């Protein structure tokens, strides 16, 4: 029997400051490519977000396709944080009602860390893939193809046996990411993807896994098997040539013009960054790109930023997060205030647009601390300020602390607010309402600064950066409505 697998993304929204923003689901693209290469199944993708297919219509399409397996989930938080889990869970329940015999598999964000809770609370979900999914999911597909039933023997897989949740052994990490096939972009409507309303055709790519920094608030904590949480700090990367192979495929076959290298620390290895830029230039590839990185790594790569710009980088993103070195150490950020200032200077002198992220809502935050944080952001002066509310990621130290304090209760959560743009936990000194008010105040103060818009639009930035700024400005009011009034975006 050939197993028919359908990867489904339900219709959902995106972050208020991202406008119309939709990219191929990287988890689906990578899992589908791996299982197809190994001949374990027939694969198909249904992306209802980009195709604007409503929920009930989605259910009818899935019923007509009649797959053996449906896959839900994602590995990136770049359009909705954890809020997307609500739609995945509802899709699982709806699909199972239409097709009672279908096997439903989830993985990635949220699910990896909360596999037991997921299976206990969602009877429609049959399997949770914990951690890196390609090999585990492929072995599951092969087991289903052969009619095998000892799912508890598959490493990295959570399932049920006799009504109880059972885990397979811990799945070891993939050390050489170059063994993975290129993502299965051919399964997606690649001409329809858009970033920040104006960037198109658009894609988000993932070129490495793990992180050496281990910030206490990072969403990636939730993507690991809770028995192997140390894997969070195990950084591995695709080779520069392999990354450029993916860029070349995207540009030449699908006409993609803009990409965001979505992992938080693309610039952690200077030699790899240089090899990537040189190879991309050598092949004559014109795709523009955005790089996320840590301030300490931007500083180490100062001499390479002109090369990165020559290779098409037009925007750099990094976390400012808080206002002083003591706080940065407390959050295991691994950077200093001096490096934040220097990163701003490095990018600005190279006419690279700057996105700086700050966060509010840590347990010790007071109104004074929050206002100091916004004052610091104003002083370091990024071009775009992205404000995130502390949203405790499952598996992280902050999650455990919030559960202990009674600030997080799984069965009482309003998941659509868990998108990092709504305050969801109080602090020792501030209520959720206080945090919403302070966040809105900070956003207004920053973007109302005299001359900011004129500086951006009169700069030598790439036009794509100016369009991004335009899109962010259009979404500030919507962001504020979410933070203060609880209006939902995702």
Automatic annotation (TrEMBL):
<keyword id="KW-0408">Iron</keyword>
<dbReference type="InterPro" id="IPR034466">
    <property type="entry name" value="Methyltransferase_Class_B"/>
</dbReference>
<dbReference type="Pfam" id="PF04055">
    <property type="entry name" value="Radical_SAM"/>
</dbReference>
<feature type="domain" description="Radical SAM core">
    <location>
        <begin position="197"/>
        <end position="433"/>
    </location>
</feature>
<dbReference type="InterPro" id="IPR007197">
    <property type="entry name" value="rSAM"/>
</dbReference>
<keyword id="KW-0479">Metal-binding</keyword>
<dbReference type="GO" id="GO:0031419">
    <property type="term" value="F:cobalamin binding"/>
</dbReference>
<dbReference type="InterPro" id="IPR051198">
    <property type="entry name" value="BchE-like"/>
</dbReference>
<feature type="domain" description="B12-binding">
    <location>
        <begin position="7"/>
        <end position="151"/>
    </location>
</feature>
<dbReference type="GO" id="GO:0005829">
    <property type="term" value="C:cytosol"/>
</dbReference>
<dbReference type="InterPro" id="IPR006638">
    <property type="entry name" value="Elp3/MiaA/NifB-like_rSAM"/>
</dbReference>
<dbReference type="GO" id="GO:0003824">
    <property type="term" value="F:catalytic activity"/>
</dbReference>
<keyword id="KW-0949">S-adenosyl-L-methionine</keyword>
<dbReference type="InterPro" id="IPR006158">
    <property type="entry name" value="Cobalamin-bd"/>
</dbReference>
<keyword id="KW-0411">Iron-sulfur</keyword>
<dbReference type="InterPro" id="IPR058240">
    <property type="entry name" value="rSAM_sf"/>
</dbReference>
<dbReference type="GO" id="GO:0051539">
    <property type="term" value="F:4 iron, 4 sulfur cluster binding"/>
</dbReference>
<dbReference type="GO" id="GO:0046872">
    <property type="term" value="F:metal ion binding"/>
</dbReference>
<protein>
    <submittedName>
        <fullName>Uncharacterized protein</fullName>
    </submittedName>
</protein>
<dbReference type="InterPro" id="IPR023404">
    <property type="entry name" value="rSAM_horseshoe"/>
</dbReference>
<dbReference type="Pfam" id="PF02310">
    <property type="entry name" value="B12-binding"/>
</dbReference>
